[in-house]
Write a structure and sequence with these properties.
The complex is a heterodimer.
Chain A (H helix, E strand, L loop, with lengths): L18 H22 L1 H22 L10 H31 L1 H6 L7 H27 L8 H28 L3 H17 L12 H9 L1 H13 L5 H33 L1
Helix pairs in contact in A: 1-5, 2-3, 2-5, 3-5, 3-6, 3-7, 3-9, 5-6, 6-9, 6-10, 9-10
Chain B lengths: L18 H22 L1 H22 L10 H16 L2 H13 L1 H6 L7 H27 L8 H28 L3 H17 L12 H9 L1 H13 L5 H33 L1
Helix pairs in contact in B: 1-6, 2-3, 2-6, 3-6, 3-7, 3-10, 4-7, 4-8, 6-7, 7-10, 7-11, 10-11
Classes of the chains: A mainly alpha, B mainly alpha.
Chain lengths: 275, 275
């Protein structure tokens, strides 16, 4: 007997759920995949954690003594800013990781599966948020060991954590944009290193902007990393800076609104091209 | 007619000269080869030269206003320190080049030639010394542009150049040793970056040691990079520091006496195994 229709067993047919359900479910699956990769490469994780710690200790003990800051001790000033810098340093891995996946064809293999296309980006960024929480914890602990004494209420700390995670989101999406725009892993690495290095040093993370020459000060005071640092610092040292906090939120939300569609478009183009 | 002896034409016979002559002559040949290679890949040279210059300008602008030094302006303090940092960072390519040459089999090809085996090391040390001096010169010119105003007599300048060359040799042999011990060029780059930056941050290149906590100060004041910087700084700013100069000299000579035989041993070890 001949039949043109192939009867599928009932349990293979995709469950009828709204697309939104699958977007979220696939994101969670890929986030878990990322976290597993992180766990399987403990050396990468240790190096990623060591980098900010070494910088922190060097500035605290070898350079910091010569730098005077107003209103608090240098170690308080430094550690509060370094929570943001550590997230910035950590985000470099997002871009290079994505570029590697694209280059090695992992993303192409995902595309042959019945899954939400967005999950590759969103899953990675969700995993990054968890990694960022870990980095915040490590920097906080090392900070306490080297003399960081935060002030402020629990509410202030919660607000600071929220702001840090928002900043992490911004850095991750920016890295994802670089990762899906630039053609090779090396190019992504070079571009993100340069961007991270400039944003990190041309900010108020290490020295107050008031001591900088005018042209540099104008940039250093208003660039997003400095504004976020001012806000976090104000919240953790109980010197709340409402203007900086609103500006930081505005920077993060405003940039995310621009960067997310750009990254999604670049990623879509990249994967369409690869096919 | 048959003969068991093959008569060599007279001019193939190696010229009879003392071994020392050939050791030096072969060193010059390989140094020249290195210099030609540098000319042919100007991008590498520019990148390695830019690195210390960019950091110098960045620190001058970002930290210049916040760090106070006694007895001179911060730019004078920083530029004199960065002449030493320039030769420290400039020694990176030595190890990278060693590792690459061995990996690619170039050294094996040299071994099949009637030449002094030491020339591979000494020739590279000589050519790289010239490159380091060039990098220091570029740093000096950039320093003059950003406000460095040296003092000191011609004799003091000559002494400073001598100390810089000696320090440069020390860093070059250290880099060469790493290039021989570590297997891959990437590993050498990683190691060189780590120790260069650690030595830079824990020295008095950016901030005076007097502002450091006791334990940090104890290390910083006695490590060779600090002593070299103190000595060069004293000579170029006409505030000679005889004690630092002698200690720097002792460090350089003492470490070279250990490093050179170690490197030669590592080289013999590595090239024998490679066959």
């Amino acid at each position: 007997m001949n039949s043109n229709t192939l009867a599928l067993p009932a349990n293979i047919s995709p469950q009828a759920r709204p697309a939104f359900y699958w977007t979220i479910a696939d994101m969670l699956v890929l986030a878990r995949c990322q976290l597993k990769r992180l766990r399987r490469n403990p050396v990468d994780l240790v190096i990623a954690a060591l980098q900010p710690i070494v910088l922190l200790v060097l500035f605290r003990y070898f350079v910091g003594g010569a730098i005077a800051v107003a209103g608090t001790s240098y170690v308080n000033y430094l550690v509060a800013g370094f929570l943001v810098i550590a997230l910035l340093l950590g985000s470099g891995a997002t871009g290079t990781g994505l570029a590697e996946d694209l280059q090695r064809g992992l993303v192409d293999r995902f595309r042959s599966l019945p899954m939400a296309k967005s999950a590759v980006l969103t899953g990675r960024i969700l995993a990054d948020l968890l990694r960022s929480s870990l980095i915040i914890l490590v920097v906080w602990a090392v900070g306490l060991l080297i003399g960081f004494r935060p002030a402020g209420t629990v509410l202030d700390w919660a607000a600071a954590l929220g702001l840090l995670l928002l900043a992490s989101l911004l850095f991750s999406w920016f890295a994802a944009l670089l990762g899906s725009t630039l053609p090779s892993v090396e190019a992504v690495q070079a571009a993100s290193l340069t961007a991270i290095f400039l944003l990190m040093f041309l900010s108020n993370a290490y020295v107050p902007t008031s001591t900088m020459p005018g042209w540099l000060r104008a940039f250093a005071e208003h660039q997003p990393v400095s504004v976020i640092i001012s806000a976090v610092r104000g919240l953790l040292l109980n010197q709340p800076d409402a203007a900086a906090t609103w500006q930081a939120i505005a920077w993060c939300v405003g940039l995310l609104v621009v960067i997310i569609p750009l990254a999604v478009r670049a990623y879509g183009r990249r994967t369409a091209q690869a096919a | 007619m048959k003969s068991n002896t093959l008569a060599l034409p007279a001019r193939v016979k190696p010229q009879t000269r003392p071994t020392l002559y050939w050791t030096l002559a072969d060193m010059f040949v390989l140094a020249k080869r290195q210099l030609v290679r540098m000319q042919r890949s100007p991008v590498d040279l520019v990148i390695w030269t830019l690195q210390p210059v960019l950091i110098l300008v960045l620190i001058r602008c970002v930290f210049g206003g916040a760090i106070a030094v006694a007895g001179t302006s911060y730019v004078n303090y920083l530029v004199t320190g960065f002449l030493v940092i320039a030769v420290l960072l400039g020694s990176g390519p030595t190890g990278v080049g060693m590792a690459t040459d061995i990996k690619r089999g170039l050294v094996d090809r040299f071994r099949s030639l009637p030449m002094a085996r030491s020339a591979v090391l000494t020739g590279r040390a000589l050519s790289d010394l010239l490159r380091s001096i060039l990098i220091a010169l570029v740093t000096l010119v950039v320093g003059l542009l950003i406000g460095f105003r040296p003092a000191g007599t011609v004799l003091e300048w000559v002494a400073a150049l001598g100390l810089l060359s000696l320090g440069s040799l020390l860093f070059i042999w250290l880099s060469a040793l790493l290039g021989l011990v570590l297997k891959s060029a990437e590993a050498v780059v990683g190691a060189v970056v780590i120790y260069s930056y650690l030595l830079m941050f824990t020295s008095n290149a950016m901030a005076p040691t007097s502002a450091m906590p006791t334990w940090a100060r104890a290390f910083a004041e006695h490590q060779p990079v600090t002593l070299l910087i103190s000595a060069v700084r004293g000579l170029l700013l006409n505030q000679p520091d005889a004690q630092a100069a002698w200690q720097a000299l002792a460090w350089c000579v003492g470490l070279l006496v250990i490093l050179i035989p170690l490197t030669i041993w590592a080289y013999g070890h590595r090239t024998v195994r490679a066959t």
